[in-house]
Amino acid sequence: MNRLVGWLALAALVAVWDPVCNSAEPIVNLQFRDVAALPAGARFSRPSRATYVGGDGRLHEIGPNVPRFALRRDENGVEMRGYLAEGAAENRLSWSSFEVALPRIRNSWSAQGGVLATYHKGVSVHGNSSLRLSGKGEWLHRSLKLGAFAAPEFRGHYLTAFVRTPDGKPPADDVVQVYASRRRGGPNEIPASRRFRDPLRVGGWWRIGGYIRPANEGQGWWCGLRVAGPVLVDAVQLERRPRNGCETPTTYIPTDGRPGSRAADVLSLDPATLRWPQQEGTLLVWMRTGSPVHNGSCPIIRQEFQRGDVSQSLALVHHGSALTAALPTGGDNTSRVVPPNHWTQIVLSWRGGRGWLYVDGSRNGRTEQEGFAVGSDFGVPKTRLFVGMQLHDYAQLAGYVSQVALYNEAWDEDEVWDHYVGDVAAAGGDPLTLVRVSMPRPPVTRPAIPREHWVRFKTELPLAAATSAVVYASDGRLVRTLWETRRAPAGINEIVWDTGDDSGRRVPAGKYELRILQNPGIATRYVATPGNGRVPQRAAAEAIGSVHALHPRGVAVDTNDDVYVLGHGHGVGTQKYSPAGRLLWTHAPLDTGDIPSAICVSEGTLFVAGKHLYRIEAATGQTIRDTEGRWRVYLGDNPELDTTDRVRPELADVREAVIERQVCGKTATRGVVADSERVYVSCWAQNQIRIFDRRTLAGRGTLSLLRPGGLAFDPAGRLWAISGGDLVRREKGHWRIVVPRAGRRPYGLTVSGEGRLWLTDLGDPCRLLEFDLEGRRLRSYGAPGTLQGDIHRDRLYAPTGIACAADGSLYVAEYLLHRIQKLNAGLRPDWVLYGGSYFENTSFLSDHPSLLYGLDGSHSGTVYEYHVDLETGSWVPQRWWWLGHEHPTREINGYMVHGQRAHTIAGHRFLFSCHKTVRIYRVASDGLFPVARIGGRFSYYDEQGTLQRPRGAFPIWIDKNGDGLAQQSEVEEAPVGRYQPEPHIGFSHDMEVSRDGTVYWGNFSLPLLRVDARGVPHYSWDRATVSGPDFAALGDVLLEGVGADREGNRYFDIFYKDDALRQPGIGHWSRRVIRCSISRYDASGRQIWNVGHKAIGRPEPGGMHQPTCTRVEGEWVFVGDEAGMVHVWSTDGLYVGSVLRNMYVDDRRQRARKRGYLLADEVTIGEFWSLDVVQQPATGRYFLAGQSHEFGEHLRVYEVTGLQGIRRARSVVQVGPPRNPPAEEKVGGGSPK
What we know:
Among the domains are: 2-86 and 265-430, Jelly Rolls; 90-258, Galactose-binding domain-like (Jelly Rolls, Sandwich); 456-520, Sandwich (Immunoglobulin-like), CATH 2.60.40.4070; 528-534 and 550-834, 6 Propeller (Neuraminidase), CATH 2.120.10. Helices cover 4% and strands 44% of the residues.
């Protein structure tokens, strides 16, 4: 009977939630079930050559230009049919299907060990033949150079094979396994945890596979199979793709004598398919993603619109396992994960200029109640409507789109939920299992303490100001924060304390001390943005930190003398500047993995070339697409260098490692130039110049030329080129050498309006060379000298790009110093534009704060020394050092955001920088020298001269012999079991070094023993101490900031993270933080205070989104917040206030992106990871330096003002004996602070 009632209730629910019963029908309802359901005008393109394994476990051909549809059911029982879009795919192996006799593939495949290969005709799942392998050993493809990726845990290469054992049993690992190794015949570097096997349900065949994650570029890999006994092999494939990023593990692309690939799917609909209502409406999309890949970018639907001279977009994008949704004039981002392999409903609804985003029936937790701004005029469609869950930059299968519907009225929250429940029920899901997400509730109030236990007392305050108050116990510990920055009048004030501590329990009877801090107003004065912007500086707001970490490769100038800078950065590829160096626009490349290396401007169009050729509108900075949405053509991959013949390549200097190997050795495209009809691209690795139609990018032929570089047209329209070391000119269908051996390493080329040829030379020294049209050399610019250390005005640092303006000015792009120089006709700098460094850390020299050190870790591994005038804000780079190679002890690699300090100790200047190891360098007049390390990120030479990695977690290396290299005898491992708790750093985003050289990292400290005559600091575990909490036992605590004062007290900012709980209204990282605080411990390890809390929405006093770094200077504790703020406490735990802007409120992030730069009091757009604070010795003033890890990637310097005006007051408070022991009290309700 109960079961019957349940079924009747469910039937009633389904009837109520039937979508047919909704009050309004869609004005557009696109169902992606099959080809017949596609609307008129739909176009689909896929030039194909592949098979895939379907849901039935069988192989299916992918037909050309036929879209794929599939029925999928998720864990909630929802079953829908959708269009499955597929990205581009590849197979890097030659002769992979074994369809020809063995002698023809011997140049590609070979046996290792005792393996015997024989041709087996008539038995296969692809084609007509397979290979029979017997014996024991490997069947290997010739060595291939595989690329490494910035996020190797998310991207790599899949190796798959189709195999069958003679008895038809599953292929066990001890019989056959996919194999990859950097040494032929070496151990299999695909561990068992990264291998899989799937049955095909076809004649006993199985598909086996595994995942390769190369750690470094340029490594050769032997890939194939390891066998021990007879096995049939039908086909093998090696492809780049994300781990866990696809629903189907692979598609197979048969290849013959060369690798093969297939283009991505493109499904587009007529531009007018979505008939947009203007004042209000609702867009509904059902989709399913198979990709939980972090930072992936999967467009679901996309269409461009034009409103007057404004270009705008409709876009739904699955990004970083969440969603980005944009209407043509507004948008939002989800705050919670969109789970993979789950049918998800997305709703965008708008009315009255406001819009709301809903996911699975519930309003996005990041959207405020009032929604986001939406304009009423969408404009007219500019492109077709593109549909498909397709990964932009990871390739392969991404997911499904099942329905796109448009309604001409807005929905409220209840209507959205009703539609969601009805759709789930109609698709076979169980509505009773659905849970409507509610917004986070406010914090629970404190337990109440009976009023008879409260104390009242009076104290005199010196100021009318923001006031904070705390209570200390007689043992020196802070027991209660009464309030933070509450406004209080001057004079006698009555204070009420309920005698509760911070947990709400009554304190024992006794004497307590009330401490009060009054802050009449702290603020910041903007000083400078060193390393980002123009020298000499300009006062314009848009000149502050606007270059966005553009690592320049090329430069072009148009007829208006506007300057276009090409390079690569954090989501930035091209920028446009006025002749005075003012930023006009920034272009973000659609494929961040394609690093462009050549640029030219012609008749209002920029032509950009790297692995692909594409176009940008010079006026607007928008990518140019054709009517089908295509925007680029493939040119070729960059070459891979073989450095195995180098002696100790880890010790290469900047010229060999960067100029020779990286710039000259691995740049395939070195020049591009256009005339009125065609575009010419120099493809260095292919020994040819490729020609394209400038309007369609269709191929128009090639010109053979040995090692072509820079290209240019002279005033007579003749084509000039660099060929190897020669300067050549095209005449009557042939190349004529005009200047043999024009330079040592000629690279870029330009021609002035007067017919002067300028080329850049990357030889030693780096130079600019001027020639006339007859080949006579006229001038040279570029002084000799070392490329590191002092920065000289007349020295060039890898000039890769050059362009000439109409007035004869030269613009030079220098790869190493990340700068653009404008040289006048007399070859003197008019201005220099800096900004390519991806700054991750910064520190003042503590005894000389006008010297600032900035560190770029992940981009290029460089340290810059700047001189900053702290009064006027003018700055100039003085010295720089490159540390980006795999040097055993010198290298800087990774995101160096974990703390940095610079001190003068015993007459020597030291730089301490932390990222999973503390790197210690001596800064001398003649260089930057590695002298010590604490932590395991280094290598040492053993007694046989072989590089080895330390065994333990916290080894110490001291450069005792002064050669800058670690020897085995110079390494001390941390003793195991000596300390309780054990030395531990948690997830430390910080470390501190005091002015006496003591290193504080995690919960341990290492005092400096001495500095020897060579300027080497000595540390030893014999003098270490461990204090503070046992982080290893705290589990999910993440230690972020570490500070210390001159008495040895320790300060930690700590947060608890939970990826399942996403806070609304804040950023990608800090929304995961559920609790956070700041703690102080004394030298014995006793906690003195714990203050601060997690901010929900706008931070209230004492609230933080995500604490990231801590600095203690003088009487103050400065705590960085990921959102861009700095919070200040006194060293005894009283909240002073916060400075700099919170970027997560008032649409500040969106406004900054729209204007293209940050305001003076905006240090970052997000990811504010590190800061330094110093008190100027001569004046006592406080200066703060911080960095932006997003949108600018720059350094900022501020003066913190108002700290001198803070006043303090203290009173003694007597708490009488409690009537009942606190343990027996019943608490509840609330009480005032």
